[in-house]
Write a structure and sequence with these properties.
- This protein is mainly alpha-helical.
- The chain folds into 2 domains: about 35 residues, no CATH class; about 100 residues, no CATH class.
- α4 runs antiparallel to α5.
């Protein structure tokens, strides 16, 4: 908060500052007022991070790269949560479900079958266990793609 308070003091003369703060009786009231004026809420950060999470797509990233990218956004978003919620089990459970939904929605279409199976499990798996499954599935997809017969380029022979 100190950095925020220095700014108005630097731009105001002592007379202006005195008249501006005269309506407060205590130092705490002055500091609370300055804090309300110059401290931004986490809402802007939260909005930006939520937007980035929704825009992030698996596309050409490996499962591990995608998971690392979305986990970083989730970790940064969790820093904007009120402290009272960080130990509240129903909130934590709901947040983990929301993360699973965000993760599954952003996956490439070649994981559609596994995504459907995961969504119908009771109880829902954790994101970490889903990542483990996806890494295994991705390895199988790559293995079969490498072993698939290469299609030859069609050739036309012209006979005179």
């Amino acid at each position: 908060m100190g950095a925020h308070i220095v700014m108005p003091i630097q731009v105001a003369s002592l007379t202006e500052l005195t008249s501006w703060l005269a309506k407060y009786d205590t130092k705490k009231e002055v500091l609370d007022h300055l804090d309300r004026l110059y401290t931004q809420s986490n809402f802007t950060k939260q909005y930006k991070l939520e937007f980035e999470i929704r825009a992030l797509q698996h596309n050409n990233l490996s499962v591990q790269e995608f998971y690392a990218a979305i986990s970083d956004l989730w970790d940064r978003l969790s820093l904007t949560e009120p402290n009272v919620l960080k130990d509240f089990t129903p909130y934590i459970d709901r947040r983990e479900e929301q993360r699973l939904v965000q993760f599954l929605m952003a996956l490439r279409s070649n994981f559609e079958g596994l995504r459907g199976l995961i969504l119908h499990r009771t109880p829902l798996p954790t994101v970490d266990s889903v990542v483990h499954e996806l890494i295994a599935e991705d390895s199988c997809i790559k293995f079969h793609a490498d072993r698939a017969p290469k299609t030859a380029t069609p050739t036309v022979f012209v006979v005179p």
